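User: What would this chain look like folded?
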Amino acid sequence: MTANADSSINKKERQMSDAAVKNEVPVKYVWEDRFGAVTDRDEGYLEIRWYDTTEDMSSAQFQEWLVGFAGEVERRRRPGVLVDATSFRMDPANMNMEWRDEHITPRYNAGGVKKWAFHMPEGMPAIGGTPEREGPAKFLTGYFARRDQALAWLASTS
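Assistant: Here's the prediction, encoded as structure tokens.
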């Protein structure tokens, strides 16, 4: 390789690196394990991204996850939450919504959540409905088929 070609490659690498830094949206990784990841987004929301390994998740493991996430919601005080459930595979029988309503939702309320967006797999019946309060939640919950729709709703003032 000639010195001129090497210089051109290095210049392009710097340009790409500079562009990536300019366009980068800061993301703080909060937690990750075999079931999913939690990130804190500077756009004002926390995100859970569930993995398909949730197929093996027990009720106790799900509750542990929710307790840990509720602590982050309280600590970070973000007005929005995005749950990417497109790869969530846990058996619905392992969910105890009464327990969640009693022990977890009040913590989300205390953390200042205003909007909760679920990014769901296509075909989920709640997709497209008007976001509304669910159970003891003081925040609106919406269900979306596309991530960009969920993010637009979280960013909106309505």
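The radius of gyration is 19 Å. If you want, I can go into more detail on any region.
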